[in-house]
Write a structure and sequence with these properties.
A hairpin with a 7-residue loop joins strand 1 (about 40-50) and strand 2. It contains 20 helices and 21 strands. Helix 8 packs across helix 9 and helix 14 (about 425-430) packs across helix 18 (about 475-480). It has an eight-stranded parallel beta sheet. The chain has a seven-stranded mixed beta sheet with strand order 3-2-1-4-19-20-21. The protein has three domains: about 1-100 and about 525-568, Urease, subunit C, domain 1 (Roll); about 145-230, Diaminopimelate Epimerase, Chain A, domain 1 (Roll); about 235-520, Metal-dependent hydrolases (TIM Barrel), CATH 3.20.20.140. By secondary structure, the chain is of the alpha/beta class. It is globular. Bound molecules: zinc ion. InterPro entries: Amidohydro_3 (IPR013108), Metal-dep_hydrolase_composite (IPR011059), Metal_Hydrolase (IPR032466), YtcJ-like (IPR033932).
């Protein structure tokens, strides 16, 4: 049988299983009494947490091609073992559907991994030594950017000059921001590339530091940073590709089989597409175009549609921002900040702009994801979804990113509108130390309200927002079930009534992101016909601190072993 035909048949089986509302096991899960076509891969483990309500636990999974063909007991799975079958026996381990980060910045992680940190260096030479390492790793002429230096930690506390950077990287332009972001340290190659010299004027609000002869010394303050930074070229495809692959490896080793990539430009999307087409993208990426600037051109393009759930890259959405962040008091609140009554934050798009954007995205058939932290921003976004007319936001699976602080009046609107609540459990445990001061006790009731949202019938999708938070989805699971930080604080958890149980939290990292990516019935469950995206953990999960250091044993993406079992 051809692969295509097989995939089609299996996908048919998959959709039939999904459509089948009866809890009884589908025919394909019964132990075969007659010889069956051998599987390519059989995994037996301590437990398989299937997330399939009809059969929540099993011992073994058989995979053929890209899909799961059997889930059941270890004994019954033996029937699928043939001479060419790879058999992986992992006693005591736990298999779960491939974990998916529902809100991440994979490309952003790649950029962060490549942005040199010179933080904490004790001299200009020590910072230059780090630049020397970076220069070895990239071709001549490629810019090296970084940040974190602080001359106050260096002998003499004087600003550095371009000289130490010239010594280590004569042929790489180097631009390093100071730890506070308000000054830039450049080498001669960078100044040459930017056309900066003795004749360069200080721009308004900026200063070029100079020696006695009037030559720039290599430090550019405030608005003068733009003289150099504006000349840093856009990243070429080869650089973007390298960043994506590095970040994807990081994600894989954290146990992720997929991410929802929250806001990229067309150039990055093109690199993703090429990697996927060449079979080189190791995890699945469901991507959103970034920004208001792309709304006008949207009507002329079509969203990607992946009918089989097997595509590695799908560009189907648009990401917008309704407000800023709570930490910097940029989140738009209905009432003033409790700890700064002169402000209630700011909507980055006003109500009219949000409504217009929602309509443009809906008319183009794309999926809208809007960042909303404060209760005023969340209300404005829900209003914009509602204004599309009955059922429209639900049909297009529109999402609210973060949905962090909700007025109790708005909480049931997620379910009523069919809007997906895309939340990040670790944001709660990162923010809990200072969020009460910003919000005051009365507003905490609708803050990070996972349990309340779920009880109202809303769909919860969980993610990390990496690289803002750590990549590991286990940290998110831990935060979701404990609402404690890693040292176990506060005892009993922060607003513990909003905790989820382990299966609910797992659902938000598996089946729920599959739904948000139009792949329910194809991914997010371990059942016959489903795509074989699997995360194997070193031990079974329990809802406590042990979650965090559970080893990632093995990762399977589309039936392919993307990360092999650790050698024992
Ligand atoms: Zn984000």
């Amino acid at each position: 049988m051809s692969n295509v035909l097989r995939a089609t048949l299996l996908s048919l089986v998959g959709s039939l299983n999904l459509g089948c509302a009866s809890p009884g096991p589908p025919a394909a899960t019964a132990a075969p009494s007659t010889p069956v076509m051998p599987a390519d891969l059989v995994i037996t483990a301590g437990v398989v947490r299937t997330m399939d309500p009809g059969k929540p636990r099993a011992e073994a999974v058989a995979v053929r091609g890209e899909r799961i063909v059997f889930v059941g007991s270890a004994a019954d799975t033996k029937a699928f073992v043939g001479p060419g079958t790879r058999v992986v026996e992992l006693p005591g381990r736990a298999v779960v559907p491939g974990l998916v980060d529902g809100h991440a910045h994979l490309y952003g992680l790649g950029v962060a991994l490549e942005t040199l940190s010179v933080r904490g260096t004790r001299s200009a030479e020590e910072a230059a030594a780090l630049v020397a390492e970076a220069a070895k790793a990239r071709p001549r002429g490629e810019w090296i950017t970084g940040r974190g230096w602080d001359q106050n930690l260096w002998p003499g506390a004087a600003f550095p000059t371009h000289a130490p950077l010239d010594t280590v990287a004569p042929e790489h332009p180097v631009a390093l921001r100071r730890v506070d972001g308000h000054a830039l340290w450049a080498n001669a190659a960078a100044m040459r590339a930017a056309g900066v010299g003795r004749g360069t004027q200080d721009p308004p609000g900026g200063r070029v530091l100079r020696d006695a002869a009037g030559e720039p010394t290599g430090v550019f303050v405030d608005n003068a940073m733009g003289l150099v930074e504006a000349r840093i070229p856009g990243d070429p495809p080869a650089v973007r590709e390298r960043r994506i692959l590095r970040a994807a490896e990081e994600a894989l080793s954290s146990g992720l089989t997929g991410v929802h990539e929250m806001g990229i430009d067309d150039e990055t999307a093109a690199v993703y597409r090429a990697l996927a087409a060449a079979g080189r993208l190791p995890i699945r990426v469901h991507a959103y175009l970034a920004g208001e600037g792309r709304l006008e051109g949207l009507s002329g393009r079509a969203p990607d549609v992946d009918a089989t759930g097997t595509a590695m890259f799908v560009l189907r959405g648009v990401k917008l921002f309704a407000d800023g962040a709570l930490g910097s008091r940029g989140a738009a609140l209905l009432e003033p900040y409790a700890d700064e009554p002169s402000t209630s934050g700011l909507l980055l798009m006003d109500r009219e702009a949000l409504a217009r954007a929602a309509r443009l995205v809906a008319d183009a058939g794309f999926q809208l994801a809007v960042h909303a932290i404060g209760d005023r921003a969340n209300r404005a976004v829900l209003d914009a979804f509602e204004a599309l007319g009955p059922g429209r936001a639900a049909a297009l699976r529109f999402r609210v990113e973060h949905a962090q602080i909700l007025s109790p009046d708005d909480l049931p609107r997620f379910s009523a509108l069919g809007a997906i609540a895309s939340m990040q459990p670790t944001h709660a445990t990162s923010d809990m130390a200072w969020a009460p001061a910003r919000l005051g006790a009365h507003r905490l009731r609708g803050a990070y309200a996972w349990r309340s949202l779920r009880a109202s019938g809303a769909r919860l999708v969980f993610g990390s927002d990496f690289p803002v938070e750590e990549v590991s989805p286990l940290l998110g699971l831990h935060a979701a079930v404990t609402r404690q930080d890693l040292s176990g604080q506060p005892p009993g958890g922060w607003m513990p009534a909003e905790r989820l149980d382990l299966d609910e939290a797992l659902l938000a990292f598996t089946a729920a992101p599959a739904y948000a990516a139009w792949a329910e019935g194809q991914r997010g469950r371990i059942a016959p016909g489903y795509v074989a995206d699997l995360t194997v953990l070193g031990r079974d999960l329990s809802p406590d601190r042990s979650l965090v250091d559970t080893p990632i044993e093995m990762v399977v993406v589309g039936g392919r072993v993307a990360r092999a079992p650790a050698a024992r």
